Amino acid sequence: MGQAVVDVNDLSRSFGRKIALDGVCFRATAGQVYGLVGANGAGKTTLIKHLLGLLRAATGSVRVFGFDPVREPVRVLGRVGYLSEERELPEWMRIDELMAYTQAFHPTWDASYAGELIETFGLDPSKKVRELSKGMRAQAGLVAAVAHRPELLILDEPSAGLDAVVRRDILDAIVRTVVDDGRTVIFSSHLLEEVERMSDHVTMLHGGRVTLSGALDDVRHSYQRSRVRFAEHFEQPPVLDTALAMEGGGRAWSVVHSGSLERFHHSVLALGGEIVESRDATLEEIFLARAGRSRQPVEAA
Amino acid sequence: MTLRSPTSAMLWELWRVTRAEIAWKLALPIGLALTALGLAAAFGPADNPARYRSINDFAAAVALSLIVIAPLPGVWISMARLTGGQPGFPLYLGYTRPVRTAWLVGLPMAYLTAMSGAIYLASALVLRVASGHAFPLLPVAAWVAALTVVWLAAAWSTRNMTIQVAVAMLAVVKALGWAVDRLTAVEIPDGFDWPPRLWPALFDWPRTDYAWIALIGLASFGATVAMVTRQRRGDALVSSTWTPGGGLWGRLVGLFGVPCPTSSATRAQLWFDLKSRGVPVLTIGVVLASVTVLVSAVSGPIDAAWNADPTVSCPIKECFWVRAMPPMLTPFMLVTILFLGVNAFGIRRKQGRTYVSAFEAANAYGTAQVAVLKILAQSVCVLAAFIAIGVGVWISMPLLGDGVFIQMFGVPLNSRRSVLTTAFAALAGYEQLALTMVAVGGVVMAVAAFAMLGALRLRYSRLASLASFLLVPYGLLFVWLWVGVRGDPAAFSRLHLDIVYGAMSWSATTVMAITTVYVVWNGFAERVLTLRYASGAVAISLAFAAAWLTVVHMLGVPLTGVSATNAISVASLALLPLTVSVLAPWSYSRIRHT
Questions:
Q1: Beta strand pairing call for A201-206 and A209-215
Q2: What are the residues facing A185 on neighbouring strands?
Q3: Assuming Cys at both sites, which of A170, A208, B392, B434 could form a disulfide with B292, CB separation 3.0 to 4.6 Å?
């Protein structure tokens, strides 16, 4: 494993009585894309703010490029590009002023790359931020975040406000360019399909805890979704070994399970059932299973 | 909690938004008024009954002014914060509720107007009981309510800040003129015009005045409902002038046309702070100074014409209609500039949320450096605005002349020019330098102190609320002093004043010293402070201390052989720059890294 760009150990943080992060460990290495997923309030933005030093760790440690971002903000933030979830930019600035202002903090600013992106997005440099739509703000913020070619690009819900074309073509291209240069991307998203498409690694947060973390392929291979048919009619989901979530009713059930496939088979057979079909689970299925929200019938018995 | 109707829900919302402001609007004016009454009673010459009575009458008038004026600035700041200070209807989130616009506007308008009047009434009743003076009740409460309802109408009806400010200022001028007209109905020879013993007669306003106030209230309500209806419908003519960061402030920001330098982060940050916060304050200062000069220039002829006009009522031999405005409004101009310049750290407020922009906080720039840069940029602009206003007043003095109004304290205003010039010229060079350093340092410390307090309040809101209760013992000390003075002025005042003064000096100095030591220790531990920064802070503080001691010496205060309390008072002010210079970056780090 390469040298850690981000190293978070046992990080906890509370806001009043609300536990936002609870013993979170997270590590990111160079040249990889890390996707953070989780429900609203899971702790994704809180974790990102710790990486930027905007929040200080109550317990545990945060290191970015080996530095504490609270104590060494210049050493960390000078190498980081950040797009905030709220697209917070100074309303009074023109886009060209925003670029000039951001450039002053980053000697590695690539003016031609910035110009190219502005042209691609069709942004008018003379327009003020307050005159931009939500999507255009996201685009302007994205240009300011990536044009200095940061070693670590942190995007908090980058797709929010972007149309499907920009999301699919331009955002993906930007992320791939960053990673191909050996740099690192960490992004949070509600769009699991997007995380699945873009990420090399996925970390799932739930209630401030990391419930799942690993290489995307490994994660997907370790979870299966199986369709099971029983001879007997079940009113309630039957108890099956290694099952995380079940959908369906009667004799037909769809099960997301992980761990030993053999144990799962045995428990299905023991209840008089058979596995009709089995495949790797999608990230969405895994997410729903881990978040405990999968209880809807999917097909008639 | 169950809210059974839209009305109770709206009232609950209004109460939640305004309750803290109601508390301070009650506590602050009453505290200040009691302080004024207490100080007059303590310091008044007990051996000269006529003079003593005159001073205490004046203190009572000051107390009355305080409970009228102190709660007024910004009318309802907590409501204005809902839109980040921008004009327009602040409860716009209610547009989607199934409530008629008239009710959506009328209920908060009635609540805030009634609350303004009630705050005045409560303050006046407390002072009546405490002082025995007949502080007026209904007439002034109605006046406060009328001004409040007009200001609310001005603030809510338009999203154009220029119109809002113009209407609000016109309302103030008319309300002041109306009050002065009523209060100068009887001239008091050889005495202060509004002694408390005459208040029952002076504040006995005719019923037609109340009818006018009711009409003003209805008209304001009607106009506001009509205009808010347009806002609610998203009328393009109305909404196009308002966007976050737009309006008058946005136009002032646009005046600074210098392009952003890209050569260094420091220059870019300086450009950012000057453009976004500093230059607008300076521009407003220059405009206020220019208005002062212009008003002063035309005031003489206007007053002469009005005094010669038989249809204009002037109960005394010469009225000062327009000439009174520049000297009366100058303190408000200075307070306005300070008020506009206090938010050096750029803390934002919107719909109950107080926060620092992540855009600024995530810039690759040192915390101490950015904090100092923000404070210095803002201080320079506030100072320049103060200087502009000072120059405006200086130029205006000869234009106003030595009128009776201006000689209220037996000192013709115009003659002060030569007195000040002569006095400053008589100082030695190092004394002039010391005076300048103290003045400049004072402005910088004021800007820094407000910025720090804002940051600490944002980060430690509950602790800050608790700390504000520390003011209660001070208030109680003043009440105790004042009650004692009423009983036996000669014997009581000196002893108890010494106790109050000593308690304030020692406790304030102790808090300052402990805070400084803790912040230095913690700042080094968190690497907010560096040795280089601390050395600079110590050097500047020593220079200020030397200047301060020079000024104290100039004022004739002995520096040797003084009591420990006096010594600690002088030393605490010398220590202040050091406290501020370490606390400023530390407090900014608390909001940058929460």
A1: antiparallel
A2: A33, A153
A3: B392
What angle, 0 to 180 degrees and rounded to 10, lies between the N-to-C axes of helices A134-146 and A172-180? 10
Residue B319 has phi, psi (to 5 degrees) of: -95, 150
Q: Please give the Cα distance from B88 to B242 (Å, whole number).
A: 8
CB B221 within 8 A of CB B105: yes
Reading chain A (301 residues) residue by residue, the pLDDT tens digits are 567 899 999 999 998 888 899 999 999 999 899 999 988 888 999 999 999 988 888 899 999 999 999 888 888 998 999 988 877 888 888 999 999 999 888 889 999 999 999 998 889 999 988 888 888 888 899 899 999 999 999 999 888 777 777 777 777 778 888 888 889 999 998 888 888 888 899 999 988 999 888 998 888 888 889 999 988 888 888 888 888 888 888 888 899 988 778 888 888 888 888 888 888 888 888 888 877 654 443 333 2
* Side chain identity, residue B61: A
Is A256 within 8 Å of A245 (Cβ atoms)?
yes
∠ CA A15-A138-A283, nearest 5°, is 65
Per CB-CB distance under 8 Å, the chain A contacts of B267 are 104
CB pairs under 8 A between A and B: 100
Cβ contact A90–B243 (<8 Å): no
In chain B, what residues touch A74 (CB-CB under 8 Å)?
364-366
Residue B295's nearest CA partner among B395, B154, B385, B181 is B395
Determine how many CB atoms are found less than 10 A away from the CB of residue B120.
27
Could you say which of A54, A82, A104 has the minimum Cβ distance to residue B261? A104
ipTM above 0.90, yes or no: no
For residues B443 and B383, is the Cβ–Cβ distance under 8 A? yes
Closest by CA to B404, choosing from B184, B199, B172, is B184
The pair of structure tokens assigned to A189 is 């998203």
Backbone angles phi, psi at A131, to 5 degrees: -90, -5
* Minimum distance, in Å, between the CA of residue B342 and any CA atom of chain A: 19
- Note the residue count of chain B: 594
Order across the sheet with A273-280: list the strands.
Answer: A243-258, A223-234, A273-280
Structure tokens at B448: 């820094």
Nearest to B100 by CA among B234, B223, B238, B225: B225
